[in-house]
Write a structure and sequence with these properties.
Helices cover about 35% and strands about 25% of the residues. It is an alpha/beta fold and about 270 residues long. About 5% of the residues have low confidence.
């Protein structure tokens, strides 16, 4: 059973989608799924819906949400920054706890969503497990990708510059999605390798790629989190990077791995 609801967050509202356990029984766990932003959010939408349904099929309720200024939630991208994103995540966590009836939830984030999960800092309270799926780690690295793609898009459309969003000279255009000056500043200052936010009791770092070895940046993050005393599980999933896919795909190996991690059982509906 899936239900949709707008709930207050700051001066606006966010759209939430709650996936209850399919048999109507009380969930054994509940996970909040945190999507990437911009072009990656669009590509990751369907895979995260498929993941939520697979988890609900195994008794793990899920809550998805669109932060303010993204997806179907009210607001504008001009106001998007780490502060609003984290506030919306906190609201989503509270909603997931209310709907599931559980005291603690798990958080799963993809790309920038993974970094927001790592920064949330709710260790020992509402969050017992964080899953970081291919986190950015460095905001500057992400901005380099945005600028490169902006230049390519600008060249393809014969638009001058290609980096600046039309009418918004201070921001960037990422595939038609506006990156605000505030978000740029937050990304420039963001680096999980030096962050000291509190950690959840359990952390799982997931790399998704075509090789069975973890990338050097993510391996370094695992070592960094372990040095801070976190219980960290590192996984490499052989699957397509669905957040970059040009067309619809079903990342079955990724979904299977997450279902097994969160429920201890394989997804029988794969």
């Amino acid at each position: 059973m899936e239900s949709y609801q707008f709930i207050p967050s700051g001066s606006e509202e966010i759209l939430t989608a709650y996936h209850a356990a399919v048999d109507g029984s009380p969930p054994v766990r509940c996970a909040v799924l945190v999507a990437p932003l911009h072009e990656e959010k669009k590509a990751a939408h369907r895979p995260l819906v498929d993941l939520a349904r697979a988890l609900a099929n195994r008794g793990c309720a899920c809550l998805r949400f669109d932060p303010r200024g993204t997806g179907d939630s009210p607001g504008v991208a001009d106001d998007l920054c780490f502060s609003t994103l984290r506030q919306d995540l906190t609201v989503a966590i509270d909603q997931a706890r209310t709907l599931s009836g559980l005291e603690k939830v798990s958080l799963l984030g993809v790309r920038l969503g993974a970094d927001l999960v790592a920064l949330e800092g709710l260790a020992g309270t509402e969050v017992d497990h964080t899953l970081l799926c291919v986190p950015l780690i460095s905001g500057e690295r992400y901005l380099r990708e945005v600028r490169i793609r902006g230049r390519i898009r600008g060249a393809m459309t014969t638009a001058e510059g290609g980096e600046e969003a039309s009418g918004r000279s201070a921001g960037l255009d990422y595939g038609g999605h506006y990156v605000s000056p505030e978000l740029i500043a937050d990304l420039e200052a963001h680096d999980l390798m030096v962050d000291e936010s509190p950690l959840a009791a359990r952390v799982t770092c997931i790399d998704i790629r075509g090789r069975d070895s973890m990338t050097a940046p993510l391996s370094a993050l695992v070592a960094r989190l372990q040095s801070r005393g976190a219980s960290v599980d590192a996984r490499v999933v052989l699957d397509e990077p669905f957040w970059n896919a040009l067309g619809p795909i079903v990342p079955r190996a990724f979904i299977q791995a997450v279902v097994e991690i969160l429920t201890g059982r394989e997804d029988e509906a794969r």
